[in-house]
Amino acid sequence: MQPTAIVRPKSGRNPLLFLGTVTAQLLHIAAMYTPGLRDVLQMQPVSLAEWAFLLGLALPLFLLAEVDKAVRRRSQSGGKAGVHDR
Prior knowledge:
Elements: H1 15-33, H2 35-40, H3 48-76
C-alpha cells in the first residue's frame, strides 16, 4: 500500500466524509463558546494558550507523518522522484 499525503487527499474519494468531519468539529467548537450550550453540555472553552499548546503538539506529528510518507514514496520509486512520476 502506497502512503498518501494528508495535505493532498484524493478529493473524489468521499467528500461527504470530509464535510461531515469538518461540520462536526465546527459544531463542537461552537458549542464550547456558546454560553447556553456550554452549560448544558458541561464544557469549558479552550483558551488561546491551550489552542497554541495543542497546535504545538499536533504540528510536529503531522509534519513527521508527511516526511515519512515522502521518504517512503521516494524509496519505493528508486530515488527517481520527479515531476513526471506522479
